[in-house]
Amino acid sequence: MQHLDEGTIHTWLDDALSPDEAARVEAHVAECPQCATAVAEARGFIAASSRILTALDHVPRGVVPAALPVQWYNRAAWRAAAAVLVVAIGSLVVVRNTERNKVASSTMSASVRTSDAIAQSQTAAVAASPSAVAATKLQVPPSATLPKRSATVASAAAPGNPSAETGFSGKSVGGVSSSNVAARERALDEAVAGNTMQSAAAEEPPLKVVGPPRMPGAKVTFYEVAPGDTVTLTEASNAQLNAAVATGIPTVEPQARRATAKSAATATARVASPSPAVLPPQAEVANGVTTISWADAATGRMLTLSGRMPVERLKEIKLRIDRERAAAEAKKKL
Amino acid sequence: MTDVDRLFRTYNAALVRYLTRRLGDRDWAEEVAQETFVRALRQTSIQNERAWLFAVATNLVRDEARKDMRRRKHLALLAEEERETMVEPEETTIERAQEAAMARKAVDALAERDRLALLMREEGLDYTEIAEALQLSPGSVGTTLSRARRRLVESYEALQKSREEREKNAAS
Fold first, then answer.
1. ipTM beyond 0.85?
2. Among B102, B106, B146, whose Cβ lies nearest the Cβ of A42?
3. Which terminal residue of chain B has fewer beta carbons within 10 Å of its beta carbon, N or C?
């Protein structure tokens, strides 16, 4: 018998031969070592190819998702992060708006009254100031609110405040109009500041310190109350003498700086006068520069604020200075 | 149990495995298998069920591939990438993934008829069924299978050898 060809060997091993043929092949393999070797080899090929083909079964479900597990994980993580961020920002906006509306509605009548009070006299608001500062000391730990707020937030938030822009534009210098929407908003802000210190302190950024001392013999601090607008707080080395000077955009209006310097000088002269605690609030306008003076509730010292802006805007800044000074004092005590 | 239910239960697993091995994509394989059973529904009678099903599935793959060369190329590309990245949902070792990649390459290196005959045989089709499905003479199936097995194993071993050499070179 001829040697077995490979096809026949595989056919035999696959049990696909007729019984007669199978018997013949079996007899030949038993006698022929060469064909026995070929059969052994064929068995090896059959087993090996089966094993190789089994390896193809570890195919993922779908080629496209197969390459994606890592990306899927990343995408999910990013989506989750984005969702958390969106929810957080949304909640913040809603809460802030709700609080603001609540405060606004609860103090609306108060603000109208305050606006009238400003038109007639500044006494009410100024008198409310010390109690407001006291409220800050008692209810609002300054470390929890003011110090944590960053200066960038202060400068970024300021442009959104219409009263700030109007206040520093100089268009309504020294003028008080109850029908003016901006004036009403300022009055509202002031009422909010006076009546609900906590929310006001939480919403209003601290004044930003922008410059080094500039006046010899006195401690002078520049604050930025709005982008481009600075306020100067002057504290003389003499403990009895304090002066705060606000200027409106000094680089653009050099005249205003000179006027401010002048009014600062007058302010200094006036602050030197005794019995600051009982001194009634003063307001005067000279060369477009408004000046107000009051007794600092925390130290009992006299402070004077000047600037090219309406009285109510100055008063707003004054309240902020009051608060921040009170906060600083409270922090020192802590 | 309706006839198509019986057909499905009897042959679906083998058919999907055959198609998966053929295509390298389980989803595509299941798609083709389902279409095969849908075609079987339209038949009044089928002489050899298994041979018919494998033949129709094979032809569907061929037709689809012919109709949609772009998709096939895309999938082949993706399959290649997948083989190289070796990312699999199942718990798998790198070695196992490399084996799968080499197996795919070795199978792809076969002639189409050899490959299909071998895959069908692995699913238990006998020589008559394979001959019917692939329109071969029954006497040539043994030769086809022996050639397919030898070539598959030899090209797999060649791939294995070159991989071992690469690893040796990388290690030294």
1. no
2. B146
3. C
